Amino acid sequence: MNTITTIIKDPNRIIYQNNIPKSHLSDGLQLKYGQAELLVYPVTTAEVSQIVQYAYSKGINITTRGAGTNLVGSTIPNGGIIIDLSLMNTIVELDKETFTITVQPGILLQDLQQWVEKQDLFYPPDPGAKNATIGGNISTNAGGMRAVKYGVTRDYVQAIEVVMADGSVLNFGSKNVKDNTGLSLKHLFIGSEGTLGIITQCTLKLIAKPKAFETLIIGFKSIDLAIANITTILQTLTPTALEFVERQVAQWGERYSGFQFPLPNAQAYLIVMLDGADHQTILQQRQQLLANLTDCEHFIAETVEQASQIWAVRGSLVRAVEAVTEQDPIDIVVPINKIADFIHYTKQLEAKTGVRMLAFGHAGDGNIHLCLLRDGREQAQWQRLLEQVHCALYLKCHQLGGLPSAEHGIGTAKVNYFKQAIPEDNRQLMQAIKQQFDRKNILNNQVYILQI
To answer: Looking at the DSSP assignment, which residues form a beta bridge with residue 207?
Structure first.
């Protein structure tokens, strides 16, 4: 691969096989590892294009990655070249007149959000991993807590620049708000987990920054009561965020963050965020909301610090578990009226298998996150139990009309459950699209699209 040195002239941006960091051979869980011959850090679209041209001519596999926060094996390399886009992190243009911002894919979500908010603008998609890159967000169509009101990443992608499998560079979309000019090809790349092309620049839609926010917690005597009130809330207004968490799960976050969650006598919570043009608007929203709820108590965060602490507990749940034991993350979605059914099933399965399961998630869109706790089990036993529990959980999800991924993607981890959920004709069409875009199957070919 000496030709790569003529493309990437800075030797510090080329790392050969024996020196590739172990973290770059895995995903965010760091439990399974692949192998690669080369790791490169391009800084321009031209460099990416030339690397891909070379790989395509030689039939060399490529795995693309950003911050490495993926949780389903999409960044575990299958030999060949790893292209790390984290150095392509520049803000190219802010266009306030069209409410768009153009960035390179390696910019971190948290950096983008903070930067645009200083301009009194707002980028709503808000997945849990704030240190993920925008390119990764687009490749998995990341959602997050604010999806219930503002939608997911797909809803904010105006245009993308893509390096195709043969190294050619194409552009899809524009700054126009409406576009019915032919097939919307950009949407094929959003959520494709790097299997169709490599995004090297993107233009994102922004909105005006809300002037006021408020966080409140609504406590209930049971998870059934909490879930039953989700529909009532959504029929009353559209909150910025609507999360559910049981008391026993919140305690993990309390121990980790050191903050006492309000309403400690409740057994389940709905955490609600509201936003608006001013505090009076939010007051009216809150009064309308609480007037329609029964059999509950509530707590209103009176300061920014209190609100931050509440969301810190919710946001720290996975880290709180990982500080104690290895966990296996599950990300599924069910119709919102089936959330309680799925949660009850997890409790039955927990009792049957002995595997502890902590459930929480985005109540407003039916996205349930589960942490399956290893609790010191030896590897062979843990793998047997995981397979048993996974099969049961994904089957129940399917029976309830749900799907195996809401926002993490399919990767390598969910191939079997993807097959279960998606009809064969649909899968064959996906594979045909992959083969049309990537005839030599070199782009992220470890990911589900070739295994279906």
So the answer is: 122
Measured over all CA atoms, what is the biggest interatomic distance in the chain, rounded to whole angstroms? 69
In DSSP terms, which residues pair with 274 in a beta bridge? 214
Which conformational region is residue 215 in: left (phi greater than 0), alpha (psi within -120 to 50 degrees), or beta?
Answer: beta
Q: What are phi and psi of 342, to 5 degrees?
A: -70, -40
Domain boundary (208, 240, 268) is at 208
Both 143 and 57 in a single domain?
A: no
Percent of the chain having pLDDT more than 70? 99
Helix residue ranges per DSSP H, 167-316: 186-189, 223-236, 247-257, 279-291, 304-315
CATH number at residue 188: 3.30.465.10
Which residues does 426 contact at the CB level (< 8 Å), separation at least 6?
Answer: none
The 10 Å Cβ neighbour count of residue 352 is 11
Please give the Cα distance from 449 to 414 (Å, whole number).
11
270 is a domain residue: yes
- Between the alpha carbon of residue 151 and those of residues 281, 293, 352, 420, the distances in Å are 22, 25, 37, 26
Average pLDDT over residues 345-359: 97
Residue 115: Cβ-neighbour burial (10 angstroms; 0-12, 13-18, 19+):
middle
Together in a domain, 74 and 97: no
Average pLDDT over residues 85-114: 98
How many whole angstroms separate alpha carbon 110 and alpha carbon 244?
23
Task: Select from 47, 40, 44 the least CA-distant residue to 14.
Answer: 40
Total structural domains within the chain: 4
Domain encompassing residue 300: 212-318
Note whether residue 14 is domain-resident: yes
**Domain shared by 140 and 78, yes or no:** no
DSSP string, 161-187: EEE-TTS-EEEEE-S-S---SS--THH
Q: What is the pLDDT of residue 2?
A: 56
Dihedral sign for Cα 365, 366, 367, 369, please: positive
Which residues lie across from 300 on neighbouring strands? 216
